[in-house]
UniProtKB/TrEMBL annotation, chain A:
Compositional bias ranges of the Pro residues kind: 276-288
InterPro entries listed in its UniProt record: Pol/histidinol_Pase-like (IPR016195), RNase_P_p30 (IPR002738)
Transmembrane segments: none
A biological process term (GO) from this entry: tRNA processing
Keyword tags: Acetylation, Nucleus, Phosphoprotein, rRNA processing, tRNA processing
GO MF entries: RNA binding
Protein name in UniProt: Ribonuclease P protein subunit p30
Residue numbers spanned by region Disordered: 259-288
Main location: nucleus
UniProtKB/TrEMBL annotation, chain B:
Annotated signal peptide: none
Source species taxonomy: Eukaryota, Metazoa, Chordata, Craniata, Vertebrata
Keywords attached to this entry: tRNA processing
Protein's UniProt name: Ribonuclease P/MRP 14 subunit
GO biological process, one term: tRNA 5'-leader removal
GO cellular component: multimeric ribonuclease P complex; nucleolus
Pfam assignment, any one: RNase_P_Rpp14
Family: Belongs to the eukaryotic/archaeal RNase P protein component 2 family.
GO molecular-function term, one example from the UniProt record: ribonuclease P RNA binding
PANTHER family registered for this protein in UniProt: RIBONUCLEASE P PROTEIN SUBUNIT P14
Keyword Translocase carried by entry: no
Keyword tRNA processing on entry: yes
C-alpha cells in the first residue's frame, strides 16, 4: 500500500491561504503535495518561467500527516500550457528547479508529441473546456510505456456545474482510451475547502470509470511512480529514453527510498561522479 | 464433579458473508466557510438531496438516504443509504461545493456496512 499524494495544489501569492491548504492536506491524510506553478507562454512577448519559492519560506513548520508520525512533504511542480510547439523547450535550465514537470497540450499534434517525445512526467487533461481532440490509442500506449501519466483535476467540478460536465466527459473519454492505467487524480485546489480526502477522490475515480483497484492506485501508487520517474530524469546519463517505470537507475530508487524515510536534506548517493544539476534536495553531495 | 478430562471440541469454522448488509452507514462532517452557520436536520437532508439531484438527476434524488443522527453544534451527521447507492451518494457529497453562496466541503469521516463499526474511530484515538 502506498501513501496518498496530491500532486496539484495551485500556487497563490497569498501565503496564509497556501499554508491553510497544506495544513488541510496534512489533516486529510496526504503525505505529499506538490505546489503547482502554471506557466502560459505566449509567442508575442517573452515571459519568464516562474521561479519556485523555497519551501522553508512558504511555511515554517510542516504539519504532521494525520495517521503517521512524519511531516508532510512539499514539492514544486511546473505546468506549461502549450498551444504551440515552440512553447516547451526541452532541457531548459529553468525547468530543473522544479521537482515535477507537467504539460497541458491543446492540440492533437502537441498531445502526440508530449506523450511520445517530450521529457515530461505528467500530461494534464484539460477539464475547463470540451475536449478539442479525440484520444488515440497510439500516443497513449506510447506514454504508458515511457512512464508518463495523465492527470485529471477535480476541483473545477466542485466550483461550477458546467465544468462538472466537462470534467466527467473528458475523464470518461480518457479512461476509455487508456483502460485505467497511468492515471492520477488530483485537485487543482486554490482554497482549503476545495480539497477532498483520499478516499473521496478514490470514489470519484469510480465515477470516472476506473475500476476499484485502479481508482485507489490513481491516488497512491501511480503518484509515487511519477515521483520516481521524475527523480530518474536527472540521473540517467544516457540519452536513450527510459523505458517505462521498471527500468530505473538504482541510484534514483535509493534516493527516493531514503527520502521517504528521512527529511529530504543532503542526498546520500554512492558513486555519481558527474554532478548533475537538479533541484537542490535531489542533488547528490559534491564529494563522492 | 465433572471429569477433568472433559474437553470441549473446538472446531475451526470460517464464515464469509457476501453483501451481508443491505445498508451502508456514513459519518460525515460539513465544513462551511462561515463557521457560525447552523443547519437544522431538515435543511441538511434537503441539501444532500439537492446535491444528489444536481449530480445524478431524479434517479439519484430518489435514493433512500436517512439522517440517523445529527449534531447541529458540530454539524456532524450519521447517514444511512442502501448499498447500491453508496457510490452515488458519496460522489455527490464529494462534489458539493456551495451552500447558499458560501463555500463548503463535506468531510467523510467513516464509512462502513455495519453501524457498530462507526462507534469507534482509530483516527481520533488519543494514546497517552
Amino acid at each position: 500500500m502506498s501513501v496518498f499524494m496530491d500532486l496539484n495544489v495551485l500556487f497563490s501569492p497569498d501565503r496564509n491561504r497556501l499554508q491553510g491548504v497544506i495544513e488541510t492536506a496534512a489533516h486529510l491524510g496526504f503525505s505529499t503535495v506538490a505546489i503547482n506553478y502554471v506557466f502560459e507562454p505566449s509567442s508575442k512577448k517573452k515571459q519568464e518561467v516562474p521561479v519556485p519559492c523555497p519551501i522553508s519560506e512558504l511555511i515554517d513548520q510542516l504539519p504532521v500527516v494525520q495517521g503517521r508520525s512524519r511531516p508532510i512533504r512539499v514539492l514544486n511542480r511546473l505546468t506549461v500550457l502549450m498551444s504551440d510547439s515552440s512553447h516547451f523547450r526541452p532541457s531548459a535550465p529553468e525547468y530543473r528547479r522544479f521537482d515535477l514537470l507537467a504539460v497541458q497540450p491543446t492540440t492533437e499534434k502537441l498531445f502526440h508529441a508530449a506523450c511520445m517525445l517530450y521529457d515530461v512526467d505528467i500530461v494534464c487533461i484539460s477539464v475547463t473546456e470540451k475536449l478539442p481532440f479525440i484520444f488515440k490509442r497510439a500516443p497513449i500506449n506510447g506514454a504508458v510505456e515511457r512512464g508518463v501519466v495523465f492527470e485529471v483535476s477535480y476541483s473545477a467540478a466542485i466550483r461550477d456545474a458546467t465544468m462538472r460536465r466537462y470534467t466527467i466527459a473528458n475523464a470518461v473519454c480518457l479512461m476509455d482510451s487508456c483502460k485505467g492505467k497511468n492515471v492520477i487524480l488530483s485537485s487543482a485546489a486554490e482554497k482549503a475547502l476545495e480539497l477532498r480526502g483520499p478516499y473521496d477522490v478514490t470514489n470519484l475515480g469510480l465515477l470516472f470509470g476506473l475500476s476499484d483497484g485502479d481508482a485507489k492506485e490513481a491516488v497512491s501508487s501511480t503518484c509515487r511512480a511519477v515521483l520516481l520517474h521524475a527523480g530518474n530524469k536527472y540521473y540517467s546519463t544516457s540519452t536513450a529514453s527510459t523505458t517505462g517505470s521498471t527500468a530505473m537507475s538504482t541510484t534514483a530508487i535509493v534516493m527516493m527510498m531514503k527520502e521517504d524515510e528521512g527529511q529530504p536534506s543532503a542526498k546520500r548517493c554512492s558513486g555519481r561522479p558527474s554532478g548533475p544539476s537538479g533541484p537542490p534536495h535531489l542533488r547528490p553531495p559534491s564529494s563522492v | 464433579m465433572h471429569a477433568v478430562d472433559q474437553k470441549e471440541e473446538s472446531v475451526f469454522q470460517r464464515v464469509v458473508l457476501k453483501n451481508a448488509s443491505p445498508f451502508h452507514y456514513m459519518k460525515v462532517h460539513l465544513v462551511l466557510e462561515n463557521e457560525t452557520t447552523r443547519l437544522t436536520a431538515v435543511e441538511l437532508k434537503h441539501f444532500i438531496i439537492s446535491g444528489l439531484k444536481t449530480l445524478h438527476g431524479e434517479v439519484g434524488a430518489a435514493l433512500n438516504v436517512d439522517v440517523l443522527k445529527y449534531d447541529d453544534d458540530t454539524l456532524t451527521a450519521l447517514l444511512r443509504v442502501s448499498s447500491r447507492g453508496l457510490v452515488k451518494l458519496w460522489s455527490s457529497l464529494t462534489l458539493l461545493g456551495s451552500y447558499q453562496n458560501q463555500a463548503c466541503a463535506f468531510r467523510v469521516l467513516q464509512v462502513s456496512p455495519f453501524l457498530l463499526a462507526l462507534s469507534g474511530n482509530s483516527r481520533e484515538l488519543q494514546l497517552d
